[in-house]
Amino acid sequence: MAVNSSILFLQAQPSGGLIALLFPIGLMLVFAYFILILPQQQRQKKWQTMLEALKTGDRVITSGGIRGTVIALKDDALHLRVPPDNLRIEVSKASVVSVATAEEAK
After folding, report:
1. Residue 70 CB: number of other CB atoms within 10 A?
2. Cβ neighbours of residue 56 under 8 Å, at least 6 residues apart?
3. Most buried of 36, 65, 84, 106 (most Cβ within 10 A)?
4. What stretch of H or E contains 39?
5. How far out from the chain centre does Cα 102 lie?
6. pLDDT for 57-79, tens place per residue?
7. Sign for the pseudo-dihedral over CA of 56, 60, 63, 66
8. 4: Cβ–Cβ under 8 A, 6 or more apart, which residues?
9. What is the Cα–Cα distance from 75 to 103, expressed in whole angstroms?
10. How far apart are the C-alpha atoms of 60 and 79, rounded to whole Å?
11. How far does Cα 37 stand from its chain's mean position?
């Protein structure tokens, strides 16, 4: 008789089914969207509007650490005047990390 009860125990079906398996995965995807994807999209939009608002005379900082003043704009590049020798260089717009405000320039 003990053998028959162990056979019945092994044949039992798991409760919950497919929904119980998919719920944690869906919850992790929603969590990843709000923690990782959404903030990155907002940063990207903010950076894109900063690049579109660039004009001559703005002081910028590039991803390489170069600080200079914008003297000319092209479609995908800009010309910077870099102190102390007023060197003129051309950099990609995509390399601009930030625009220095008036308080930072002083």
Report:
1. 19
2. 70, 71, 72, 73
3. 36
4. helix 38-52
5. 26
6. 999 999 999 999 999 999 899 99
7. positive
8. none
9. 28
10. 11
11. 8
* Predicted confidence (pLDDT) at residue 12 exceeds the cutoff of 90: no
Q: How far is CA 81 from CA 20, 28, 39, 40, 61, in A?
A: 61, 48, 33, 31, 12
The owner of tokens 């053998």 is 3
Whole-angstrom CA distances from 96 to 18, 53, 56, 71 are: 49, 12, 14, 14
User: Tokens 């995908």 appear where?
Assistant: 76
Q: Which residues contact 91 (CB under 8 A, 6 or more apart)?
A: 62, 66, 77, 78, 80
